[in-house]
Design goal:
By secondary structure, the protein is α/β, with parallel strands linked by helices. The protein has one domain: Divalent-metal-dependent TIM barrel enzymes (TIM Barrel, Alpha-Beta Barrel). Helices cover 44% and strands 14% of the residues. The protein contains ten helices and eight strands. It has an eight-stranded parallel barrel with strand order 1-2-3-4-5-6-7-8, surrounded by six helices. Strand 5, helix 5 and strand 6 form a beta-alpha-beta unit. The longest helix is centred in the middle third of the chain and has 21 residues. The radius of gyration is 18 Å and the shape is globular. The termini are close together. The model has no long low-confidence stretch (mean pLDDT 97).
């Protein structure tokens, strides 16, 4: 398996705002293929700055991917039509910026909001239907920009709408757009799926992006996740896309607050320690991929 392997910049950060240029250089030096950044951070950059970032990444041989959990004011499943309209326009705006940078992937909770702020008392079909209609509108722009719109399937404690690969496939089928795929995440699948490998296989043809991390949010290889099962599932699903690790081990800041990091998993490690953990995880995952040819 020759999948590109990447890492989310926030592994090193305690705040969502960051100098992405710094991380382009860092992940290139560590040997990664992909750097994932927060799509919302693009708003804080001018168009020339965004293009400079894209050029810096290309010059370093790094592909950029983009991820976001939509804030509640942009909830595309909201009962409030005005909120849904704002979410649709915001997603289109992000897609325009990513397309201008030559980006190919926008993933995350981009069908409702993160974390969920209200919950159905029974049937979630009304939320589902509103979200499907919203995503259909956004999918047109995704196609125009050449960006795949990847719906992240997350655990029940963060969102209620899409918790399993089976639900994700059904949702994508309802949307009915080739520009809409799934972002499966091993961390969330460990909570929600009976068998991760089988769940991955069930989404064959619908997987547009893949996140990895240990059950305790440490870097891959530092826990007990069934990596052989995961890799076999990806192979059987014929997934040739990007695999991006999304570990979180530091406390503090808005990142720690939002990810619920209530104890430090880095042993107060400095940036050299963090770099070492990233390099270890990269070698671990590349080894697992190589085992499968």
């Amino acid at each position: 398996m020759n999948n590109k392997v990447g890492i989310y910049y926030a592994f090193w950060e305690q705040e969502w705002s960051a100098d992405y240029f710094k991380y382009v250089e860092k992940v290139s030096r560590l040997g990664f293929d992909v750097l994932e950044v927060a799509a919302g951070g693009l708003e804080d950059m001018t168009a020339p700055q965004r293009r400079d970032l894209a050029k810096a990444a290309a010059d370093a041989g790094i592909e950029l991917t983009y991820c976001i959990g939509l804030p509640a004011r942009y909830d595309m499943a909201s009962p409030d039509a005005a909120v849904r309209a704002c979410g649709i326009e915001y997603a289109k705006k992000l897609l325009g910026m990513i397309g201008d940078m030559g980006g190919k992937i926008l993933g995350g909770i981009i069908y409702s909001c993160w974390p969920a702020t209200s919950f159905p008392q029974g049937d979630k079909r009304p939320w589902w239907d509103r979200s499907v209609a919203s995503v259909r509108e956004v999918a047109k722009t995704a196609g125009d920009e050449g960006v795949t719109y990847c719906l992240e399937i997350v655990n029940r404690f963060e969102q209620f709408l899409l918790n399993t690969a089976r639900e994700g496939v059904a949702f994508a089928q309802d949307v009915g757009s080739p520009n809409v795929k799934l972002l499966l995440d091993a961390f969330h699948m460990n909570i929600e799926e009976d068998f991760i490998g089988n769940a991955i296989r069930s989404a064959k043809g619908y997987i547009g992006h893949f996140h990895i991390g240990e059950a305790n949010r440490k870097a891959p290889g530092r826990g007990h996740m069934p990596w052989d099962d995961i890799m076999d599932g990806l192979r059987d699903a014929e997934y040739a896309g990007r695999i991006v690790m999304e570990p979180f081990i530091r406390m503090g800041g808005q990142v720690g607050q939002d990810i619920k990091m209530w104890h430090d998993l880095s042993d107060n490690g400095d940036d050299a320690y963090m770099d070492g953990e990233a390099a270890f995880a990269l070698n671990f995952i590349r080894g697992k991929l190589a085992e499968r040819g």
